[in-house]
């Protein structure tokens, strides 16, 4: 394409088809123009490797083709999505909910409320072959996705501490992930996902852009890997705070972490069930835990302190844009630094981050948003207001942190922080799907 990209010139996204050949999954999509000659085609590739076991369950491959589609739909956010191959009504419902929840932030930032409710249509997969009984065995080793941060480290070490040796799983090559895998000593497998180059090109020419539900994509990829390798459940490390949205907009809860939330976990498990697959193939081990509880457990695993990174900069898709370590300014850096400050202390935390983020006055607006005295919860993977405020109160009470720009700037707001810290309601039990065999892993007394 050489002309500017006009989103209004497109009437529909077509999900054309998918195939798996030589361990390489390709899903094809087309933005259909309102006039002849402006169609734009995309191909997303997930390379499982040439030695990937076959056959792979087609229900999961079809689910992956649907789950990758929001990346291409959002380029123009047309009024229609047309699925070219047969699907069941519940699969089309899955895609509708994926768009409505997973693109909430995208729609909010672009002020496109109608982008969350496209018409989804396509031929019906009436009837179909008789499925054999689900061969899933929950007793087999789990597949644990590794993100390079503290949460997956806690899952790995809790499992190991209870005699469960997980197979670790990652998508693409990122140094912090590789470091954590190496420290764990566990076996691992890697998949390479490539977004269509055409999408990158049209983004540069004026296509709509924004956040997509990446965790949803990685979840379905994980299900395919676990199924093909004959493993047990895919065990994610999504915590309670991912259930909490950022803003309410047009009556919708806009949640940056929607594809990490219990809402998506429920949606995916229900979709598996309707495919006559065991929903316990997928759950989050840490769902009932707050970020604070996870941080309390993480501080016992000192071997990872120099390896883990939660900042997004080292995970940029373009290797030329990747930072070597914590940037010290983004919401994730600010939140993790704040959360770990009263748990690890100033000297150790400065060594981990290579700086003290509380010394930089420019970080004050970001910290205010995180502790609940600013605009709103940042559009990032950060915890709840109350636990951030709890951590800040502990910092204010610790003389080791005194005199730093952000600490002193927030000291006059101590009463307000105390009110935020008291806002959690522990009487509401969190919903989770952790099976009893794995729930025992979370019990510190066992």
Could you characterize what this model shows?
The protein has 17 helices and twelve strands. With 446 residues, it is α/β, with parallel strands linked by helices. The chain folds into two domains: 8-123 and 190-284, no CATH class; 321-440, no CATH class. The strands form three sheets. Strands 5-4-1-2-3-8-7-6 form an eight-stranded mixed β-sheet, sandwiched between helices. Helix 11 packs antiparallel against helix 12 (346-353). Pathway: Cell wall biogenesis; peptidoglycan biosynthesis. Belongs to the MurL family. Keywords: Cell cycle, Cell division, Cell shape, Cell wall biogenesis/degradation, Isomerase, Peptidoglycan synthesis. Cell wall formation. Catalyzes epimerization of the terminal L-glutamate in UDP-N-acetyl-alpha-D-muramoyl-L-alanyl-L-glutamate.
